[in-house]
Each structure stands twice: as C-alpha cells, then as structure tokens.
Amino acid sequence: MAMKVALLGCGAVGSEVVRLVDEQRSELATRAGTALEIAGVAVRRPERARGLPIDPALFTTDAMELATRPDVDIVVEVIGGIEPARSLTLAAIKAGKSVVTANKALLAEDGEAIHSAARAAGVDVYYEASVAGAIPLLRPLRDSLAGDRVQAVLGIVNGTTNYILDRMDSLGAGFAESLEEAQSLGYAEADPTADVEGFDAAAKAAILARLAFHTEVSAADVHREGITEVTAGDIASARDMGCVVKLLAICQRSADGSVGVRVHPAMLPREHPLANVNGAYNAVFVEAESAGRLMFYGAGAGGTPTASAVLGDIVAVSRNRLAEAQVVDSGGNGETRRVHPMGETVTRYHVALDVADRPGVLARVADVFAGNEVSIQNVRQVGHGEDAQLVIVTHMAPDAALGRTVEQLRALDMVRSVASVMRVEAFNDQ
Ligand SMILES: NC(=O)c1ccc[n+]([C@@H]2O[C@H](COP(=O)([O-])OP(=O)(O)OC[C@H]3O[C@@H](n4cnc5c(N)ncnc54)[C@H](O)[C@@H]3O)[C@@H](O)[C@H]2O)c1
Ligand SMILES: N[C@@H](CCO)C(=O)O
Ligand code: NA
C-alpha cells in the first residue's frame, strides 16, 4: 500500500518536493520500501497555474482537513511561520500522522510542545531542512553522534548574511549595497529583518543546541545580535589582524554543565575552516569529545536543495512507519541543563579606539581593562597624532566584564571614539 503524503504549502520548497516526488517516483519507492503518493497539496490559491506534474484536483485550500484526513500517513509542512503552521502540525500529530517540517521558526519557538505531542502520539517529527537546508546535519547530531558528547557547535547558518559579509570583505562594499545585491539575487527576503537581525540564525542555533546538548532550548534563550551595525571599519580591522567577520551561531557546553547559545558577528582567523565559507553557503563545525572536530558544508537554502532534505526525511519516516517504529528524538527529553545568560559566556574582544596620541593614554586604557579583570593579549598602535588608534585584543573573559570595559573606555576623555568592538572566536587558545 502506498504511503500517502499531504503537502502543506507549495512555495519555493513545496513545489520542488512535488517535482522531485514525480521525477524520482521509482527510486523513492525502492528506498522507502513502498510507493510515495501525494494525497493533496494545501495552497492559498488553487487556481494559480504552477506548471507542476500533479493532478490539479489535488490542490485544496483546506489545510486542516488535509492534515487530519484519515487516509494520510505523512504531513509535510512547508508553509513556514508560527500560525497556522503550529495548529496544523499539532493537529496532524494528534491524528497519528508523522510530520516532516522545514519550519525553524516554529521549532525554535514551540519545539517542546511539538516533540512531546509526537512522543505521546507515537509518531515521528523530522526536520532536517529546518537548519542549513540541504546539509545533513541534524540526523548526524541526533543519530551518528548519539554515542558521543558534543562540546560545541559553531556555524554559519544564514546564507543571506554570509553573502553580505563576504561582499563587504572581498569587494570592500558597504552593508546597504551588499544587502540590495543579496535581494536582487533572491537570497534575502523583501523584508530581510529575519536574516540581517539574526532571528533566522538564532532559531537554527536553538534547534542545534537542543540536539547537541539534549536539553530544552528555545529561541528566547539565544543571545542575538545581527549584522546591521557591522561597518567597513570592522571588516578592515579584522583584515589587519588576519581575520574575517562572520555571523556565527555558537552553542557551547561550559565546565559547570550549563550551555550558552548565541548568534553575533565575530572575527575569525582566516585559516579557520569556517573563514573560507563564502557566498551564500553554510557550514557547521562540531566538536565532540570522542569524534573530535567535524565539519558539515553545503547549500543552506534554495528550493531544490531544501527539498532534498525534505525528501530524505519523507523516506526515513516512511521506513519507520512500515517498521512500526518511532525514533527517539533525544533533544529535550534528556538532561535538563541551565542555559546561561550572555554575560556569563567566556569570550574575547577586539577593541579599536581612536585616541589622543600622548604619554599616559595607553596606561589609562590598560587600567580600565585591569579594573574589570580583563587581561590584554596584545595591543598595537596604528597611525600617529590625530590619526592614532589603539587596537587591543583581550584574553578570554566573561562577556559582562568585557562589555563593562568598553562602556568605561567610551567615557574616557582621551578616547575620542570607539571605532570597532567585536568578539573574536577561535583566535588561539591562550
Ligand atoms: N526557501 C528556502 O531556501 C528554505 C530553506 C530552509 C528552510 N526553509 C523553510 O521552508 C519553509 C517554506 O519556505 P519557502 O521558501 O518554500 O516559503 P514560500 O513563501 O516560498 O512558500 C510558502 C507557501 O505557503 C503558502 N501558504 C501560506 N499560508 C498557507 C496556508 N494557510 N495554507 C496553504 N498554503 C499556505 C504560501 O502561499 C506560499 O506559497 C519555511 O518554514 C522556511 O523557513 C526554506
Ligand atoms: N533565509 C535563510 C534561508 C532559509 O533558512 C538564509 O539566508 O540562509
Ligand atoms: Na539540514
């Protein structure tokens, strides 16, 4: 008997799922162990000509009816956003359907409700497409690394911002023109807020941290800073230190067992593998106790690559349904760990100060660092007289102490302005 798939949403990802299910019909049947049949497609405008290889009679505007229809086995949610996606997903689970979703926003906001509903109903929720699109990342974290202890996940998980920062670095372009370029190429949405303010990356960070550390993490737990304040001066400052600026999603386990989850721009040494991830590509670096360092790289967005991840999930949940098995999603039903605030996160700052060029300035600046128990790793002066700039890189210190230091530096008379402040990751281990 065929496995019946209800598709909710037929946009960039959904339409590619329809096309690939048709194009790969026989291979998919072999791999899934049974034929896959699209039982219906929920859309807003059924009359729209989509040119897809599917009987138009399968289009419906009643997504709820389709998601809960008795003959449906698997519901694929590619509408996006919180509502109606949440109600549809929960209703499908309650009706005994397995769910495949690409919806990072929903999983990051209300993942525990969805996962616990799935556990109670004995069905699967698979979501490989929700983080870093086509890149197989969540299944490796959940399954392949199930016997290991993940220490850290460091990733470039938003293609739009990576494209913008890459252009600022390689062409010396400004933020606004790079964003326009990303929009004209279709990477950034017409409203690019979710990308450039880091919301998209923060949702993905929450999902990654939950899987990596087996604890509940939601979008609200993630410290988030976007890239709208990154200037050409920051990029130039990074270059001077042999670094590149990237928007990073960082999930770390601390010595006390708590976890930190954050998204912010950071300077990264050019020799770090993530520094060479260019254009709209994504890459995620995982450090595990026994496995060591692993890296996952590829297309993090785009209709066809994302549909690849959705189809892989459809095949996987089909196999589980045939075997009458449910996979344990050990995300939030493992240990409960404290998610610590950003102030407790131990990190390192790069600070460039426009200063008066006269005796005693360096000593006074160093005093402020010392007063906050922040140790300086190196300091250099660039330019002279009116153009003098002090560029300081700190040792690791709690983020709260580093932030306080910068505030006090701003208040010093001899500091004309703080030209650049940015965290530095993976610089070296001292
Ligand atoms: N496009 C990508 O590169 C990409 C990558 C990874 C994950 N995702 C995720 O995949 C999901 C879908 O993204 P997309 O790019 O295909 O978006 P999209 O906007 O192209 O498609 C969503 C579709 O859902 C339809 N829709 C909205 N409300 C509906 C309703 N009530 N009933 C039926 N249809 C409805 C819209 O008309 C639209 O056609 C999102 O969760 C997104 O975050 C997308
Ligand atoms: N808007 C996202 C793609 C979907 O996650 C990005 O630019 O990476
Ligand atoms: Na993925």
Notable characteristics:
430 residues, alpha/beta, Rossmann fold, Alpha-Beta Plaits, ten-stranded mixed beta sheet, 25% strand, binds nicotinamide-adenine-dinucleotide, binds L-homoserine, binds sodium ion, NAD(P)-bd_dom_sf, threonine biosynthesis, methionine biosynthesis
Give a topology summary.
Layout: E1 3-8, H1 12-23, H2 25-32, E2 36-42, E3 59-60, H3 63-68, E4 74-77, H4 85-94, E5 98-101, H5 104-121, E6 125-126, H6 138-144, E7 150-156, H7 159-171, H8 175-184, H9 193-196, H10 199-213, E8 223-224, H11 232-240, E9 243-253, E10 259-269, E11 281-288, E12 292-299, H12 303-322, E13 346-347, E14 349-355, H13 361-371, E15 376-382, E16 389-394, E17 397-398, H14 399-411, E18 415-424
Helix pairs in contact: 1-12, 4-5, 5-10, 7-8, 13-14
The protein binds nicotinamide-adenine-dinucleotide (NAD), L-homoserine (HSE) and sodium ion.
Summarize the entry for a quick read.
The chain has 430 residues and is an alpha/beta fold.
